[in-house]
Amino acid sequence: MNNKSLYPTVKSYIDQLNVDQIDAARKEDLNVLVNYINEKLKGDDPIHLNFICTHNSRRSQFSQLWAAIFSDLYEVPASCYSGGVEVTACNDRVINTLKRIGLEVSGENEGEEENPHYLVTYAEESNLVILFSKLYDDNYSEGTKTCAIMTCAHADENCPVIPGAEARIPIRYEDPKAFDDTDRETEMYAERCQQIATEMKYIFSSVSYED
User: Fold this and answer.
1) Per the structure, how many domains does the chain have?
2) pTM score over 0.90
3) Residues near 84 by Cβ (< 8 Å), separated by ≥ 6?
């Protein structure tokens, strides 16, 4: 892994993510995406990963961010996006979780106030990741082949067809929203963030397209 010039707190966070803690059954689910990426690399085809949940506010935002970070660190040329079936906003609890682990977030006042655009960096010379709520087809022009990664049961079960997706892979996560405004809110957002970060680390560290 290329650590680049990761912010020290972000490097510490990434270093403690233990992919060996992922159980075998879950790795089978994740390996479907690993295999998809490998096949795209073998064919020298562009890789567009779109993480989808209903409101594009929590799980899909975490997924987009960590996929973008680890695709960069493991030098996998993937474009990582997220979207939903409804536009809401990237939840501020997600943003607060990212700040607590050392990611730098700016631009909270950019864009429309009801759906701000957050600009996230993780290293001195890192790529910029932009988080905001959008429809799942917001990022793609006609003809772009995408892989739709369904991060929540509701979107997976209520969107039988994702236009433009050549592949559809369910990688579901429990919604931390269930703990909003409870004494476990911070803990559960941190837990979901760590789970998703660990699994994205596993996915991109497992990519190998050599015959």
Assistant:
1) 1
2) yes
3) 52, 53, 54, 55, 56, 57, 60, 133, 134, 135, 136, 155
